[in-house]
TrEMBL record:
Residues engaged in binding GTP: 234-239, 253-259, 278-281
Protein name (Swiss-Prot/TrEMBL): tRNA modification GTPase MnmE
Cofactors, names only: K(+)
Entry's localization field: Cytoplasm
Family membership noted in the UniProt record: Belongs to the TRAFAC class TrmE-Era-EngA-EngB-Septin-like GTPase superfamily. TrmE GTPase family.
Subunit structure: Homodimer. Heterotetramer of two MnmE and two MnmG subunits.
Enzyme nomenclature, EC number: 3.6.-.-
Residues that hold Mg(2+) according to the record: 238, 259
Length: 461
């Protein structure tokens, strides 16, 4: 049965706004509230998990629409409460009429519009899914590439959670041993040896490192990578954006200073979403509009994960670098740790072929020469190495928790290694590591965190 019998019944349009063949209004709540809807709108009490075809009635018993009604009894439903789904025709007016009808019938039971993510939040509160799975539902809906969607399904089916549970079990096992020993101080001395504590710690650390590396890949798939193109006017930034995206999204002209605003295009390489950002050419200018464009370039550079600095292969070496004060400014804006790669563009105009090295690559945005090696290098730079089929989706929040857990395990190790083996501190660090891991699945969370997570969902989910 639901853990929160006092929460009011909720209702929302569950399908996307706009027109579609089918639209769904979904309600969740107590049996009394849901049965009242069924009786008033479908004219009878519904059998659980049966599709009932018929009219959806208004307050004058006139049909609003004809469609399928599905009733799921608690706890065998998405939310774990009693749920009614009315599948009508997917027009905005029909959906609004059905929604209003539900609200007016349900008013007697306190029914209200669902907040963003509230159905999923109830599923979490009623133990239908854990927090990592709830997040995976939002990530599946938001997924921008096929690989991101597949990895979200993997998290949703519990692969990520089960790796976390395994880790927690191992930490708890060791913690129990340490705490039991604390009660018998005379045995502390050879406890660590007997229990193979170091072996256990080693295995926990190895497992943590494995989960962290997969989660990092999952976070890449979810969040994408910001790749910012910078360089002087006319070096071919807009041409490169178009070549990488396979469409003409940025204006290409031989007139310097054409791109005055940043243009962003999402492309994918092996399923990793990249946001490629074309910027205004960097040069000293008095043109007011162009100055604003350059300001926006700096703003984009500050949020870059990777900076691609384009130069023109046909320019002489000194010319290529351009304005030294702008170059210095560029260096200062690039976030620390964001890799930067120099691309020598227009290689098609060079007489002899040139050789790439770690920091420079030759490309031609015009002929496409060198673009495949560039794509491969980008994946390497952002650290994507897994084949997408091994990855479960993850968020920055999960990475932080995993890193903190690892720090606590390391500190635990340090306590165990000291001469007088501080077992109480050792146990405490294990407890803190466990707490961090539990935050991922939501076994240990604050209401604030739940609010942040579920409010980012769409309404009706
Ligand atoms: P941006 O100002 O850096 O965005 O440069 P554009 O992409 O607008 O390109 C400026 C000019 O260089 C245009 O006339 C392009 O056709 C030309 N161009 C860009 N890339 C190449 C290239 O790889 N080879 C050659 N030959 N011309 C290029
Ligand atoms: Zn441009």
């Amino acid at each position: 049965m639901p853990n929160h019998p006092t929460s009011p019944p909720i209702v929302a349009i569950a399908t996307a706004t706009g027109r579609g063949g089918v639209g769904v209004v979904r309600a969740s709540g107590s049996f009394a509230a849901i049965d009242a809807l069924a009786q008033a709108i479908c004219g009878r009490t519904l059998t659980p998990r049966h599709a009932h075809y018929g009219a959806f009635l208004d307050e004058h018993h006139q049909p609003i629409d004809h469609g399928l009604a599905l009733y799921f009894n608690a706890p065998h439903s998405y939310t774990g409460e009693h749920v009614l789904e009315l599948q009508g025709h997917g027009g905005p007016v029909v959906m609004q009429l059905l929604l209003r009808r539900c609200l007016s019938v349900g008013a007697a039971h306190g029914m209200r519009l669902a907040a963003a993510g509230e159905f999923t939040e109830r599923a979490f509160l009623n133990d239908k899914i854990d927090l990592a799975q709830a997040e995976a539902i939002a990530d599946l809906i938001e997924a921008s590439t096929e690989a991101a969607a597949k990895s979200a399904v993997r998290s949703l089916s519990g692969e990520f959670s089960s790796r976390i549970h395994t880790l927690v079990d191992k930490v708890v096992h060791l913690r129990m041993l340490v705490e039991a020993t604390l009660d018998f101080p005379e045995e502390e001395i050879d406890f660590l040896q007997k229990a193979d504590a170091f072996g256990q710690l080693d295995r926990i650390q190895a497992e943590l490192a494995g989960v962290l590396s997969t989660a990092k890949q999952g976070a890449l798939l979810r969040d994408g990578v910001n790749v910012v193109l910078v360089g002087q006017p006319n070096v071919g930034k807009s041409s490169l954006l178009n070549a990488l995206s396979g469409q003409d999204v940025a204006i290409v002209t031989p007139i310097a200073g054409t791109t005055r605003d940043t243009v962003t295009q999402s492309v994918q390489i092996d399923g990793v979403p990249l946001n490629i950002i074309d910027t205004a050419g960097l040069r000293d200018t008095d043109d007011v509009v162009e100055k604003i464009g350059i300001e926006r370039t700096w703003a984009a550079v500050e949020k870059a994960d990777v900076v691609l600095h384009l130069i023109d292969a046909t320019q002489a070496e000194q010319e290529r670098l351009g304005d030294t004060s702008l170059l210095k400014a560029l260096d200062e804006k690039i976030p620390s740790g964001a890799p930067r790669l120099t691309l020598i563009n227009k290689s098609d105009l060079l007489e002899q072929s040139a050789v790439n090295d770690d920091s420079r690559m030759y490309i031609s945005a015009k002929t496409g020469e060198g673009l495949d090696p560039l794509r491969a290098r980008l994946l390497f730079i952002v650290g994507f190495e897994k084949t997408a089929s091994d990855v479960f989706i993850a968020r920055e929040r999960h990475l932080t928790a995993l890193r903190h857990a690892d720090e606590h395990i390391q500190t635990a190790y340090a306590h165990a290694l000291t001469q007088d083996q501080k077992l109480d501190l050792f146990a405490e660090e294990l407890r803190l590591a466990q707490e961090q891991l539990n935050q991922i699945t939501g076994a240990f969370t604050s209401d604030d965190l739940l609010g942040v997570i579920f409010s980012s969902f769409c309404i009706g989910k």
